[in-house]
Amino acid sequence: MAVKVISLKCPDCSSPLAGFEKDEIFFCPLCRTGWEPAAQQKKVPLKVSYARAQKVPEKFERSFYLPFYLYRLSVYADSESASSPRVMELLQRMTRVFVPAYRMIRESYYGELGLLYTEVGVVLEDDPDVSEQERKRIGSAIRSREETAPYLYYYPLLIIDKRLDVTDSDYKMNPVFDQIWAVPFFDLGEFIQEGILGKTFPSIILDTISDFRAVNY
């Protein structure tokens, strides 16, 4: 049986791509792009921006980046029951959806950062000063773009439902993929802290924490 070998080098610059064994997206630290080696269609680079940390702990053992898909979103009330003024105002402001490309154990219990970023309307700032070595410390893109579809509907509905019961209300979602954001995280030992809102999580809920700790650059 023939074995297909996928080269994990950037198709544009031939630099080694960063990522782990089970990842769906691999990253070129030099070009700041993401690639989907398993994609059947012609490979197209995905723009990757490295977010500037807003909450940095005083002490940490190492930093690394976890990827989020950003989608531009248009939401329309598709029924009269969904068209209250309060919800319509919310729909006009809900223009971005963040979906983590990584997975954590019991995300719903510890807090889904994608949902939180989407609800508070997080605006990330690109950090041009991140070194190439730092950009290599990225991975855990286990969730493919195809797997984000339920979240693009689920997250907005959860946010709307806090203000108005969505039962028997219809909404039309028009998501368009925009780019990948690499969000800084800090390894505190027993915990990890994300660098935008300063949220902390037990480090054991990130399956790939041992992979990040094994990276020697």
Spans of at least 5 consecutive residues with low confidence: 1-5
Work out the radius of gyration.
Answer: 18 Å
Shape: globular
User: Which structural class should the secondary elements be placed in?
Assistant: alpha+beta
The fraction of residues assigned to DSSP E strands is: 25-35%
Calculate the mean pLDDT score and round it. 88
> What string, H for helix and E for strand, traces the elements in order?
EEEEHEHHHHEEEH
Between the first and last Cα atoms, what is the distance in angstroms? 38 Å
Total helices: the number is 6
Domain tally = 1
* Biggest sheet descriptor: 8 strands, mixed
Number of strands: 8
Which range best describes the helical content: under 10%, 10-25%, 25-40%, 40-55%, 55-70% or over 70%? Answer: 10-25%
Question: Could you explain the architecture of this structure?
Answer:
The chain is an alpha+beta fold and 217 residues long. It is built from six helices and eight strands, in the order ββββαβααααβββα. It has helices at residues 85-93, 107-110, 113-120, 132-135, 149-161, 209-214, and strands at residues 26-28, 33-35, 46-50, 62-77, 96-100, 171-187, 191-194, 200-202. The longest helix is centred in the last third of the chain and has 13 residues, at 149-161. Mean pLDDT is 88; it is low at 1-5.
